[in-house]
Specification:
This protein has helices at 6-16, 23-30, 34-46, 62-89; strands at residues 50-53, 57-60. The protein is built from 4 helices and 2 strands; from the N terminus they run αααββα. The radius of gyration is 16 Å and the shape is globular. The chain has a two-stranded antiparallel ribbon with strand order 1-2. The longest helix has 28 residues, at 62-89. It has a single domain, classed as Orthogonal Bundle (Arc Repressor Mutant, subunit A). Helix content is 67%, strand content 9%.
């Protein structure tokens, strides 16, 4: 098993919540404890990246989707930079 950082957990929550999930579904899909879920979901709601819909479902907001896209771009850029450094060393 590997350790995930905050960024990985947040991205997994936002991805999973696109279709609207209740807390227990998110906890299972993202593999979080109740305490972790309380912390992360509270923070994401506060930042406007998640919202709660009817039937207590968490859904990724437009702002959350934009955040995911920006993060993907940053991660791809970092990966390309690392690959470029590796190829120059060879």
């Amino acid at each position: 098993m590997f350790r995930r950082d905050r960024h990985d957990i947040i991205m997994e929550i936002l991805k999973s919540a696109k279709s609207g999930k209740i807390k227990t579904e998110l906890m299972k899909e993202v593999n979080m404890s109740f305490t972790q879920a309380q912390q992360y979901l509270g923070m994401l709601l506060e930042k406007g990246l998640l919202e709660t819909k009817e039937n207590r479902r968490f859904t990724t907001t437009k702002k959350g989707l934009e955040f995911m896209e920006k993060c993907k771009g940053c991660l791809l850029r970092q990966w390309h930079e690392q690959e470029g450094r590796k190829s120059r060393k060879v």
